[in-house]
Specification:
The protein is built from 27 helices and 6 strands. With 520 residues, the protein is mostly helical. The N and C termini lie far apart (73 Å). The C terminus is likely disordered.
Length: 520
């Protein structure tokens, strides 16, 4: 039997059987025009087909030039012309919620048996969700031949057709290592990496190479959340994954992700990675937010070329099952001293935990002291409340050492007078940075003890940055801490809750002012 026409319909968003029937009618093409691009001629041919059908059905001819909405309502009648066709139904797993999978398969069976059509179903079997059991139940009854299309990353990269330059080569290597086969995702990775390239020109090439690996990983995680580790996993379990301290805390899927990240040579998320994650979510990278973390990464990269990196020392621990405990720990300790300037608090915490668990507690405490004594950093560096990964700092000796170092600094130059001065715009970058470094406790004490005009100026000055469109991160931090302090003040009494609400700050109605905690 000769099949003279063809129809391709994506089920993405199709929400009823009538809509599907109408789409089959509306998308019908002559078989010889299947590969032709959309043109005036192809549109005219489709219109002629519709008119010919209408001419044979005079009751439809009377209303033929009508809107698509009306045509949808007469879809069953239009569907009468759908016969002896080649039909391709794509995106089965992305159908609208109003379209039942059983109805689709019933229609396919009808088209095959009664209308003498040849029907091809294209779908992602793993994405069917709750419909998977229905599909498998009727598969044998409806489908004659099933073929699994197991594409490889290399095949997908050929379809993506990336430029054969350094960036294309790097992106390709990342996609192969991660097993990415989605062509759209590969192209998104390539586009974002190319847009990021100019932002890294002033830094060591190693910084851009590392950023490319991170961007590929985060794009995959963001655009294919069912296949990749989540951002939450990267943020919340980085320490356990990187330093081997999370035994028993991982699901079976997370264990598999850990193995993949190890083969991808991705250790832990750092401050630069946080900016890159945000860039993936936003679709672009913020140069101002990138500058500081990228500069730190640049310093580490240059130091690595001279003395070898702290991460390299850890390879003796991660990269084998040899009985080399003494060698590995000694190498880590030696590299720790050489690279102390570039070791983050989370790296310190993981190293200390490793040494303690392997019966080197005294050496671990010595490393903490060496770290605190040799990090010539401003006061806020030792304020773990300001550290983006503070939740991963779990060792009590590390926490205690940081607090002692923080307390050893002279009182921060920021005072209630400086906070009050914000109202009149009397501030510079150093002032803002100092105020941002204050803890929420300090904000609480200052605001709670202020009176009269001073109180009004302090609160107004702190909260003004919520109204500024181009507020910097330190400015936003000032406003956030002031709001948090005011909420704590609101918990002290019912009258203070009303006072705080007067500043426009929403106070949860279920706060129990007797316990200073949310009530039941």
């Amino acid at each position: 039997m000769k099949l003279s026409s063809y129809a391709y319909v994506s089920l993405f968003g199709v929400n009823s059987l009538d809509d599907l029937k109408y789409a089959l009618f509306a998308n019908r093409l002559a078989k010889e025009n299947i590969t032709d691009p959309l043109s005036t001629e192809s549109l005219r041919a489709a219109a002629n087909t519709a008119k010919q059908f209408a001419a044979k059905n005079s009751w439809i001819a009377n209303i033929f030039p009508v809107s698509r909405g009306l045509l949808s309502s007469i879809a069953p009648a239009l569907f009468m012309s759908v016969r002896q066709m080649i039909i391709c139904l794509d995106d089965l797993e992305r159908k609208g919620p109003g379209l039942d999978l059983g109805d689709i398969l019933g229609l396919v069976s009808f088209l095959r048996e009664e209308r003498k059509c040849k029907v091809v179903l294209l779908l992602n079997n793993e994405a069917l969700g709750n419909d998977k059991s229905t599909f498998e139940k009727y598969l044998e009854k409806v489908v004659d031949v099933t073929l699994a299309y197991n594409v490889t990353p290399d095949e997908s990269l050929k379809k993506a057709d990336l430029k054969p330059d350094d960036i294309g080569t790097q992106v390709s290597a990342c996609c192969v290592a991660l097993g990415i086969i989605n062509v759209r995702v590969i192209k998104k990775i390539d586009a974002l990496v190319r847009s990021a390239k100019p932002l890294f020109e002033q830094y060591d090439q190693a910084v851009f190479v590392a950023a490319t690996k991170s961007l590929a990983l985060f794009c995959w995680a963001y655009h294919q959340p069912d296949d990749a580790p989540s951002f939450a996993f990267f943020r919340s379990k980085k320490s356990e994954r990187a330093f081997g301290t999370g035994a028993g805390n991982f699901t079976t899927q997370e264990i598999a992700w850990n193995a993949l990240l190890s083969s991808y040579d991705f250790g832990w998320v750092d401050e630069l990675d946080l900016v890159l994650m945000k860039g993936v979510e936003n679709g672009y990278l913020d140069p101002d937010e990138l500058a500081g973390p990228a500069a730190k990464a640049d310093e580490r990269a240059k130091a690595t070329k001279a003395d070898g990196s702290f991460e390299d020392a850890w390879r003796l621990y991660h990269d084998s099952f040899d009985e080399n405990e003494e060698e590995a720990l000694n190498a880590i300790a030696a590299s720790f001293e050489k690279n102390v300037k570039y070791i983050s608090p989370i790296n310190l915490n993981g190293t200390v935990r490793l040494f303690k668990e392997l019966d080197r507690s005294e050496q671990a405490r010595s490393m903490i002291g060496y770290y605190v004594d040799n990090r010539q950093e401003p006061r806020q560096f030792f304020d773990l409340e300001q550290y983006p990964f503070s939740g991963d700092i779990s060792d009590p000796d590390v926490i205690s050492a940081f607090k002692a170092k923080l307390d050893s600094f002279p009182s921060a130059p920021a005072t209630s007078d400086m906070l009050a001065a914000l109202k009149g715009g009397s501030w510079d970058t150093d002032t803002i940075d100092n105020l941002a470094s204050l803890s929420t406790d300090e904000y609480y004490k200052i605001i709670a003890n202020a009176k009269g005009e001073e109180l009004r100026r302090i609160v107004s000055g702190c909260l003004q940055f919520d109204r500024i469109g181009n507020a910097t991160e330190p400015m936003k931090e000032i406003s956030k801490k002031a709001r948090d302090a005011l909420l704590r003040i609101a918990l002290t009494s019912k009258i203070n809750a009303r006072r705080v609400a007067g500043y426009g700050i929403k106070v949860p109605s279920n706060f129990d002012t007797n316990t200073r905690e949310p009530g039941g």
